[in-house]
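Pilot study result, target chain (120 residues):
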Amino acid sequence: MTKRILLTLIISMSIFNLFGQGKKDKNKSEFKFSDSEDKAVFTCNHVTDEKSPILYVTHDNDGDWQFLCGQNDHAEENAKIISLKNAVELDNTLNELFEMPLGVGAERKGMGEKWNPFRL
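Predicted structure:
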């Protein structure tokens, strides 16, 4: 009887794994934005190269997104373009801003802190 229960359990687990149920891909970030995943967005090399946290976000009136580190000393050579999906993969808490309207920005003091919205 024990072998039968064990065999049933193994078969059930195999079926769930076969169809991808019962497990999540931990490397895949949730994506809540209505913009396409491949939308080009602006960021800075502090975020992409130096792994600084994203602390300042704007959703410009023309629909562009900017995901920046929050430093004020950016120059043209600091600018980088990545996909919106890549930005969310760098920091999945950006999903909290997926409904942010045009002409609004948000900033925070550090990772895990509350986003504080402002008008552009």
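One observation from the pilot: The CA atoms of residues 37 and 84 lie 5 Å apart. A full batch analysis is planned for the follow-on phase.
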